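Below is a typical protein record.
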Amino acid sequence: MRAKPGVSIWRADHLPGTKKGAGNQNLDIVLLLSTLYYLYLIFNRITVTLTTISRRDWVNQAIEIIEADFNRSADTHLVKLNWPVFDCVDIYLKDESTHPTGSLKHRLARSLFLYALCNGWINQDTPVIESSSGSTAVSEAYFAALIGVPFIAVMPKSISCEKIEKIKFYGGECHFVDSSAQIYQAAENLAVELDGHYIDQFTYAERATDWRGNNNIAESIFEQISKEPHCVPHWIVMSAGTGGTSATLGRYIRYQKFSTRLCVADPENSVFYDYYNNADRSLKIEKGSLIEGIGRPRVEPSFMPDIIDRMEKIPDAASIACLSILETRLKRKCGGSTGTNLFATLKLASEMQIASQCGSIVTLICDAGERYLDTYYNPQWLKSNNINTAPYMQKLAELESGNMNALFNNTENQNIT
């Protein structure tokens, strides 16, 4: 008998102590053992094949669930912000707070889960671990619950209570560390300990999203503004957390050959602004940003400085002062990063107005302010963190009265760049 590759055929004369011509009883035993062994090999191969098919089927189903969720979702609105003193500059806010999980990070979380599933990193029993300042973890907890896998967020203890409750609401767990600088290693260690997958937004944000289109945020912005008077924005303003959204915006602008320029706003206690100016990737700081979701204590792998046209360093007090302006004009509360975006936007609009340059600027409402009632909207928290918004409220009031130089320091260059 000719053996199949990888399968041994037992014969009586192969067994120790058995010789040709042995009694029929011995031969029957040997043939039975040979048959059982052969069946075992076949069963083992079938089991391995079925397991592989089962895993693939589960991944296919998980992708279908995420795609179906996307198909049920509407696009976010592009809100025009009326600011009468800018008579030739139109300002628009892409309202990302209306996603199911309430923030811009919903897009990122969807992309990260699809990226991990298609790379074979997440299966039906894989715990998913993330290092986060909160909003990404909320969105990832949502998608983990959607496909039925465990989720653990590694976060600094300073995260707002509202975000913690949201993560728990979606079935996620929270693992706390003392500072933002500690979240990376703690997440890696936890993934190893639990034999899970560290989904790592800070590394994969810029590559998980299809920057050429496929309904990314950049494509959405340009489609929504296409019927406006200034249908190609002069500026798009975005703050950076992972750097993934600014990478998508910058790449899409270049891929579509638009004249739009990209400005990235950076809060205090973040290294992105300094890295943009001196290219020192080793930059690190111990203290984390008080503006949750943006600003990092190290240069993240997804931050792409070469596709950014300009960066602005925005004081935390200026960011939080802008929240009061937005609440007055929109009759709603916004998160701190939206204030950072708006202050940079108003500076650019002032420059354009001074130069009699007409056009549009688009920025983002990253999330809603209800997540920050115990921080940015809490006078006691502001006092304990030495944040005095009064000087910037005065500057914004001067701007509203028509002083286009109100937001600039004496040393700042006010010329169009």
About this structure: The radius of gyration is 28 Å. The chain has a mean pLDDT of 89. The chain has three domains: 1-72, 77-100+215-400, 106-205.
